[in-house]
């Protein structure tokens, strides 16, 4: 197994350039959109972590107890779902066939548990808002050659990153990175 490496923090000009590097995804080609999101999640993972921490801290300063409770609930639901997904064949097959639905169900379960404790607004702003911002950026940001090469290296197993491990635990990594590799190889040959 390769050593886990944290991706470098990308410059602001690379992370948020002018409008020419952003485009609406093609909603008719879900595979291409999924590849764009996965590649951007892997390439900008440290920037996304910084963004999530900033939003998390801002919301956490307004309601620290609610934020702590929200983070604990989401972490426990996530770890529980990963454990169940690995140990129950039915869940494992569902996770493999419908990875996006699996992530949605984890977030929905977290929301339901949080609503029992009255921390819904903290959950919405502190946990869901960073995820929405990250997904929006990953969906709209066009990839560059550097991004494609970094993803190819990670996909080949030459290096592992924290985001790669999270995506793998959610069932997003294995098949999708193989598709990404095939797509990149065909583009590089052109």
TrEMBL record:
<keyword id="KW-0812">Transmembrane</keyword>
<dbReference type="InterPro" id="IPR004895">
    <property type="entry name" value="Prenylated_rab_accept_PRA1"/>
</dbReference>
<dbReference type="Pfam" id="PF03208">
    <property type="entry name" value="PRA1"/>
</dbReference>
<keyword id="KW-0007">Acetylation</keyword>
<keyword id="KW-1133">Transmembrane helix</keyword>
<comment type="similarity">
    <text>Belongs to the PRA1 family.</text>
</comment>
<keyword id="KW-0206">Cytoskeleton</keyword>
<keyword id="KW-0472">Membrane</keyword>
<dbReference type="GO" id="GO:0005789">
    <property type="term" value="C:endoplasmic reticulum membrane"/>
</dbReference>
<feature type="transmembrane region" description="Helical">
    <location>
        <begin position="67"/>
        <end position="86"/>
    </location>
</feature>
<keyword id="KW-0963">Cytoplasm</keyword>
<dbReference type="GO" id="GO:0005856">
    <property type="term" value="C:cytoskeleton"/>
</dbReference>
<keyword id="KW-1003">Cell membrane</keyword>
<keyword id="KW-0256">Endoplasmic reticulum</keyword>
<feature type="transmembrane region" description="Helical">
    <location>
        <begin position="123"/>
        <end position="142"/>
    </location>
</feature>
<dbReference type="GO" id="GO:0051051">
    <property type="term" value="P:negative regulation of transport"/>
</dbReference>
<feature type="transmembrane region" description="Helical">
    <location>
        <begin position="98"/>
        <end position="117"/>
    </location>
</feature>
<protein>
    <recommendedName>
        <fullName>PRA1 family protein</fullName>
    </recommendedName>
</protein>
<feature type="transmembrane region" description="Helical">
    <location>
        <begin position="41"/>
        <end position="61"/>
    </location>
</feature>
<dbReference type="GO" id="GO:0005886">
    <property type="term" value="C:plasma membrane"/>
</dbReference>
């Amino acid at each position: 197994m390769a050593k886990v490496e944290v991706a470098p923090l990308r410059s602001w000009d690379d992370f948020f350039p002018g409008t020419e590097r952003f485009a609406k995804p093609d909603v008719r080609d879900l595979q291409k959109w999924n590849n764009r999101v996965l590649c951007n999640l892997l390439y900008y993972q440290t920037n996304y972590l910084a963004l999530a921490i900033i939003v998390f801290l801002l919301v956490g300063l307004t309601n620290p107890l609610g934020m702590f409770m929200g983070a604990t609930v989401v972490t426990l639901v996530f770890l529980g779902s990963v454990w169940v997904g690995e140990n129950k064949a039915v869940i494992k097959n569902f996770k493999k066939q419908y990875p996006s639905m699996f992530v949605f169900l984890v977030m929905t379960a977290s929301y339901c548990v949080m609503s029992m404790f009255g921390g819904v607004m903290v959950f919405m702003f502190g946990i869901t808002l960073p995820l929405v911002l990250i997904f929006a950026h990953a969906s709209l940001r066009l990839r560059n050659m550097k991004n494609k090469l970094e993803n190819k290296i990670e996909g080949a197993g030459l290096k592992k990153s924290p985001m790669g491990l999270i995506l793998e635990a959610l069932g997003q990594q294995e098949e999708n990175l193989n598709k990404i590799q095939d797509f990149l190889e065909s583009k590089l040959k052109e």
